[in-house]
């Protein structure tokens, strides 16, 4: 790459880099700094060192929120990945029917989050909501989505599963990059539909799938905020769907404990980085080898 | 030398600025203030009417109303506005939540304004509503209402069931008996369609029954360091929890999630509703049945819990005099008459509370004097800076026990132990 081309690329990237620096990096650094202070944003901050982190470890609500967040990520990330993959393999074709299907999959992702949450508040209404009316009409059990801990947690997962548009688009694009010749060669060597998927399609898509899994892990640790705030209100009581983002929000904005809330976000950041590192260690080499083999 | 041609845009800008300049005389004298309030649409309409009347009454203060759906939203906006250096000039807040701002020196005490006011004096207000807003001897905010928890009842349902209407001196057992009679299955699906009672399982609903039973809520009402539920308190709590688990006279958890108690009462599907004066503007939309209000039932003595909101001036306001001027109007006879006539408030100003603006029998409820009769028997929840946290935590525990068939003693122990750290963090 010559210097002129490199300068052009930097210029193109500049607005994004600037935005990320101002809106993500600087607030993140600020959060790290605030985490060692007690600050209500009304009076001057008071340095407390690691007291906020120590208090977090003793806080039963924080421990519940942490457990809820980890459980959510453990269930939602694989589920969203599988759904995105399945739908992409079903709808990557170029017919009008496939295009209509792709639009339908994308729609929940482009609806504003608050509207999406309010729609689900209606869908999940245990008596008047369409979901339970449909389940009841089919003779199936009708869970109390908003008043029992188990169904409420599944409801938050369900809300997240439908917002998989970005992952779906990437998988569709990757699927279209799989050369048809390879599929034909595999078919000639006797591989059936399933064999071609396992031996050709998935290995070629493996790096992208790993990337999506890592990206989805980051998102899943944050995306519970609006569903938990608007739909389940962190309950059913006491804290069945209180996740780390909601815990941080309440402590910061409702109880004016911004230092404590910042310490929570620091824990979230460290947690996210740790999970990503584990994911990469577990599947990074596998995805590279799969790609090379394919 | 050639003269540069003036661009048409520049010309328009100059003309606009001249035009603005011509009008700048009176504009300069107008002080703008912002007023944050929260509530249902009907409540917000009442506050909007006060602001409109205030603006009509004078031309030197321009008040902008900033309405929020609930107190959480208001607190979020208030704290971030203060942090951002642009606090609202005024906000309206319940006595249970203002202390977190008072403890942080974010409020301007109003004593000096009150002493020199021509509109009213401290004695013109019900003392019961003033006391919770006093901190370390200073009046931090000025109350707009002196409401309390009462029982709204569907009079038609009572008459149809041949039940005596709730009235002064009725007991807890009377209420449960009536609630049982009013709970019934209309369509034969073995599930009640109408319940006798609608009540939210929260500490503010439970507290007056603890007091009514002679029990204690906290160890020291003036400077609480812990919940302290004694035997009468636990007994009252158990009777409260029994309303759902043993008596079955209130909607189930699932039904309460599907439709709240206020909406059920509006639709004629609960016979009684435990609420404050706040719901009256909404209840006045009822046209399909007669309703009225009664005092809380008694366990051993007549008690209720104070519901009061007050206007507070922020310490960071740069229009404190103008803000006080708004308070003088909103809490003076004209402003209080507007909110009282809208049904929202039990006026904190004695003269308006005793007037037709509040007691008019043509505007339901018929027996609004019930609220005034309660005033000498009102008790306030603790005023501590961490009460919002304590209340959120306590409400979760109480709700879980209420719908899950929990035992009062276990709830009392859990509440006491789990909230100690929150009380300890409160700033005195």
Fold topology:
The complex is a heterodimer of chains A (294) and B (428).
Chain A: H1 3-34, E1 37-38, E2 46-47, H2 51-58, H3 60-91, H4 96-110, H5 113-123, H6 130-137, H7 149-161, H8 165-177, H9 180-188, H10 193-220, H11 225-231, H12 244-254, H13 258-293
Chain B: H1 8-22, H2 24-29, E1 31-38, H3 41-57, E2 61-68, H4 71-83, E3 90-94, H5 99-102, E4 107-108, H6 111-115, H7 127-130, E5 134-135, E6 138-139, E7 141-143, E8 147-148, E9 150-154, H8 155-160, H9 172-182, E10 195-198, H10 203-212, H11 231-245, H12 253-258, H13 261-266, E11 270-275, H14 280-283, E12 291-294, E13 304-307, E14 309-314, H15 320-330, H16 333-341, H17 350-353, H18 356-359, H19 369-374, E15 378-379, H20 387-404, H21 408-418, H22 420-424
Parallel strand pairs in B: 1-2, 1-3, 10-11, 13-15
Antiparallel strand pairs in B: 3-14, 4-14, 5-6, 7-14, 8-13, 9-11, 9-12
Helix pairs in contact in B: 3-16, 10-11, 11-20, 20-21
Description:
Chain A is built from 13 helices and 2 strands, in the order H-E-E-H-H-H-H-H-H-H-H-H-H-H-H. Chain A is mostly helical and 294 residues long. The model of chain A has no long low-confidence stretch (mean pLDDT 90). Chain B has helices at residues 8-22, 24-29, 41-57, 71-83, 99-102, 111-115, 127-130, 155-160, 172-182, 203-212, 231-245, 253-258, 261-266, 280-283, 320-330, 333-341, 350-353, 356-359, 369-374, 387-404, 408-418, 420-424, and strands at residues 31-38, 61-68, 90-94, 107-108, 134-135, 138-139, 141-143, 147-148, 150-154, 195-198, 270-275, 291-294, 304-307, 309-314, 378-379. In chain B, the strands form 4 sheets. In chain B, strands 1, 2, 3, 4, 7 and 14 form a 6-stranded mixed β-sheet that branches. In chain B, helix 3 (41-57) links the parallel strand 1 and strand 2. Chain B is globular and about 70 Å long. Chain B starts with 7 loop residues before the first helix and ends with a helix. Mean pLDDT of chain B is 91; it is low at 1-27.
């Amino acid at each position: 790459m010559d210097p002129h081309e490199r300068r052009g690329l930097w210029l193109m990237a500049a607005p994004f880099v600037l935005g990320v620096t101002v809106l993500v990096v600087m607030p993140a650094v600020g959060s790290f700094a605030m985490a060692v202070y007690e600050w209500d944003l009304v009076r001057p901050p008071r340095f407390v060192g690691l007291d906020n982190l120590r208090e977090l470890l003793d806080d039963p609500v924080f421990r519940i929120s942490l457990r809820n967040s980890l459980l959510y990520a453990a269930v939602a990330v694989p589920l969203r990945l599988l759904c995105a993959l399945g739908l992409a393999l079903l709808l990557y074709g170029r017919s009008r029917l496939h295009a209509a299907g792709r639009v339908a999959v994308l729609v929940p992702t482009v609806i504003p989050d608050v509207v999406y949450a309010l729609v689900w508040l209606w869908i999940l209404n245990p008596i008047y909501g369409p979901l339970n009316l449909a389940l009841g009409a089919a003779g199936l059990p009708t869970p109390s989505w908003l008043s029992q801990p188990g169904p409420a947690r599944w409801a938050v997962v369900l809300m997240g599963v439908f917002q998989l548009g970005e992952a779906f688009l990437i998988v569709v694009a990757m699927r279209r990059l799989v050369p048809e010749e390879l599929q034909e060669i595999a078919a000639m060597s006797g591989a059936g539909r399933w064999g071609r998927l396992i031996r050709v399609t998935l290995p070629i898509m493996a790096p992208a799938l790993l990337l999506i899994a890592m990206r989805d892990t980051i998102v899943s640790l944050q995306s519970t905020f609006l569903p938990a705030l608007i739909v389940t209100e962190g309950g059913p009581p006491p804290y069945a769907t209180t996740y780390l983002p909601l815990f941080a929000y309440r402590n910061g904005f409702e109880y004016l404990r911004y230092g404590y809330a910042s310490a929570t976000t620091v824990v979230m950041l460290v947690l996210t980085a740790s999970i990503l590192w584990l994911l990469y260690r577990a599947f990074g080499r596998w995805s590279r080898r799969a790609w090379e083999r394919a | 030398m050639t003269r540069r041609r003036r661009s048409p845009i520049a010309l328009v800008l100059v003309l606009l600025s001249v035009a603005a300049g011509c009008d700048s005389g009176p504009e300069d004298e107008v002080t703008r203030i912002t007023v944050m309030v929260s509530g249902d649409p009907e409540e917000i309409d009442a506050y909007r009417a006060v602001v409109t009347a205030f603006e009509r009454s004078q031309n030197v203060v321009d008040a902008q109303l900033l309405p929020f759906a609930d107190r959480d939203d208001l607190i979020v906006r208030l704290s971030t506005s203060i942090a951002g250096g642009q606090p609202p000039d005024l906000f309206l807040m319940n006595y249970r939540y203002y202390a977190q701002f008072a403890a942080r020196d974010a409020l301007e005490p109003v004593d000096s304004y009150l002493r020199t006011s021509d509109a009213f004096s401290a004695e013109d207000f019900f003392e019961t509503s003033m006391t919770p807003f006093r901190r370390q001897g200073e009046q931090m905010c000025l109350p707009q209402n002196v409401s309390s928890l009462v029982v709204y009842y569907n009079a038609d349902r009572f008459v149809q069931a041949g039940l005596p209407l709730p009235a002064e001196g009725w007991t807890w057992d009377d209420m449960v008996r009536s609630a049982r009679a009013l709970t019934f299955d209309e369509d034969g699906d073995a599930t009640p369609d109408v319940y006798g009672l609608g009540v939210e399982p929260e500490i503010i609903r439970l507290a007056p029954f603890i007091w009514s039973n002679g029990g204690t809520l906290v160890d020291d009402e003036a400077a609480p360091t812990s919940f302290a539920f004694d035997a009468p308190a636990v007994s009252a709590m158990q009777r409260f929890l029994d309303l759902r688990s043993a008596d079955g006279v209130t909607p189930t958890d699932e039904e309460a999630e599907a439709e709240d108690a206020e909406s059920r009462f509006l639709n004629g599907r609960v016979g009684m509703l435990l609420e404050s004066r706040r719901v009256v503007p909404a209840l006045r939309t009822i046209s399909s049945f007669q309703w009225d209000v009664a005092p809380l039932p008694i366990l051993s003595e007549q008690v209720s819990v104070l519901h009061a909101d007050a206007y507070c001036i922020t310490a960071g306001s740069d229009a404190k005099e103008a803000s006080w001027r708004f308070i003088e109007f909103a809490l003076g006879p004209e402003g209080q008459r507007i909110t009282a006539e809208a049904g929202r408030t039990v006026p904190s100003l004695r003269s308006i509370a005793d007037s037709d603006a509040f007691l008019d029998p043509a505007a339901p409820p018929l027996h609004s004097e019930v609220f005034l009769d309660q005033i000498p028997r009102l008790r306030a929840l603790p005023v501590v800076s961490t009460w919002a946290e304590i209340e959120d935590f306590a409400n979760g525990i109480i709700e879980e026990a209420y719908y899950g068939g929990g035992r009062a003693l276990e709830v009392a122990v859990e509440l006491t132990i789990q909230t100690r750290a929150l009380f300890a963090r409160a700033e005195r």
